[in-house]
Write a structure and sequence with these properties.
- With 415 residues, the chain is α/β, with parallel strands linked by helices.
- It has 14 helices and 13 strands.
- The strands form three sheets. Strands 2-8-7-6-5-3-4 form a seven-stranded mixed β-sheet, with helices on both faces. The protein has a four-stranded antiparallel β-sheet with strand order 9-10-13-12, covered by helices on one side.
- Helix 3 packs across helix 11 and helix 6 packs parallel to helix 7.
- The protein starts with 8 loop residues before the first helix and ends with a helix.
């Protein structure tokens, strides 16, 4: 991995000075400021991003015009192409993916199931799925379910949860029976950023396919799916892409694989001619074959707004701010929380870290409950991890400072 330079001022400057020097500071005003309950520090953007300030009016406009006025005519005029048009724009701005390879549809779980099953069936004679034991539960559960369904074998990677899956861990388990490897680019618990290009190349050398879960990296860490040679990828859009609760996920299928893979959930929207009403299923010849039912057009609209905001800011600038925020969070954890017995459970090297950090303490479950009542919102992950999620475009250094000081104060109260 390439090194990530961190200026010394991130440790020595005040939060106000860091905010004054932040070239992305102006973007914070583009997010909705809640008018009701006071929020002191929102440190959970890695679970659910804030809504954009423009989204309510733009949703109302969509409902009044495209839906209210054009009614079903909008399907012919634009909506039929929405899953791939938005997928192409997301691919261009966030994923490093050329056109015709990304669709927006379904939930993360459904898309993971589709692509994982397609990858397993697309490697005949191979019957092993590789996944790590500390991956997000849905990923592991899906692997277990598909293995039972298809009579496949699971090869588990037992990586250090405080770091994550490294190329050597993958090399130790892939082989001639490996069909597909499923890994998270950024680990949901520790924030570890995997070496996706090296691991992808290693999996290919073994003759297998790789499926990357991008839920905790899309919108916060630059991704280059085409350049890395990635086969398949899935990610949610409600974290750093601010699509809203339950927003549809995206799926990426490398162009050269599309006609070689058959997804398992056949539906009319993925057929060659959706309105042909043919007696037999024939899949579309392009990435649309990975669609199934009617796409959630209304739910896609907030994502469209956020993708354009990221395009305006630039993913490289987003990453630079993310690194500074997480570095500052570690500085504050060392200064304010370590003396109280808190341990860092995330990489210290910014080149191996996404946009959140995790700190551990046995009292963090009750601390989190107290913090939420005070308008300070991190999130808790069992058994005793507190995740500090930092969305670069909506989080200030002053907000981070206030949040970390509140964590210290709440911890002092329960000890």
């Amino acid at each position: 991995m390439t090194s990530v330079p961190v200026p010394a001022s991130v440790a020595t400057a005040s939060a106000a000075q860091l905010d004054d020097a932040d070239p992305l500071a102006g973007f914070r005003g583009r997010f909705l400021d809640p008018a009701g309950e006071h929020v002191v520090a929102y440190l959970d953007g890695n679970s659910l991003g804030r809504p954009l300030a423009e989204t309510p009016a733009r949703l109302a406009e969509f409902i009044g015009t495209e839906w209210g006025e054009r009614l079903i005519r909008s399907w012919d005029e634009r909506w039929m192409d929405e899953p791939t048009a938005l997928g192409d724009r997301l691919g261009e701005v966030v994923l490093g993916a050329g056109p015709g390879q990304t669709v927006v549809a379904d939930s993360t779980s459904v898309l993971l199931y589709k692509l994982l099953r397609a990858a397993l069936d697309g490697r005949p004679g191979r019957d092993e799925i590789v996944v790590d034991r500390d991956n997000f539960p849905t990923d592991r559960f899906l692997v277990e379910g598909i293995a039972a369904e298809r009579g496949a074998r699971i090869r588990w990677i037992q990586a250090d949860p405080a770091t994550g899956v490294r190329p050597d861990d993958v090399a130790a388990v892939v082989g001639p029976r490996t069909a597909v490897v499923l890994l998270s680019h950024v680990a949901y618990r520790s924030g570890f950023l995997a070496d996706a290009p090296a691991i992808t190349a290693l999996v290919h050398d073994a003759g297998a396919l790789v499926l990357w879960d991008l839920c905790h990296s899309a919108g916060s860490v630059p991704v280059a799916l085409d350049a890395w040679g990635v086969d398949l990828a899935v990610g949610c859009t409600y974290k750093y892409l601010n699509g809203g609760p339950g927003a549809p996920a995206f799926g990426y299928v490398r162009a050269g694989l599309q006609q070689r893979l058959q997804q398992p959930i056949w539906g009319w929207m993925g057929a060659h001619q959706p309105f042909g009403m043919s007696p037999d299923y024939r899949p579309a010849e392009d990435v649309r074959r990975f669609l199934t039912g009617t796409p959630p057009i209304l739910a896609m609209q907030p994502l469209k707004h956020m993708v354009e905001l990221i395009a305006e800011a630039g993913m490289d600038a987003v990453r630079e701010k993310s690194v500074l925020l997480t570095e500052r969070a570690i500085v504050l954890a060392d200064e304010l929380l370590a003396p109280l017995g808190v341990e860092l459970a995330s990489p210290r090297d910014p080149a191996e870290r996404g946009s959140h950090i995790t700190v551990n303490h046995p009292r963090f479950r009750e601390v989190t409950a107290a913090l939420w009542e005070r308008g300070v919102i991190p999130d808790f992950r069992a058994p005793h991890g507190l995740r500090i999620g930092l969305s670069p475009l909506s989080t200030s250094f002053a907000e981070l400072q206030a949040g970390m000081e509140a964590v210290r104060d709440a911890l002092l109260e329960v000890q």
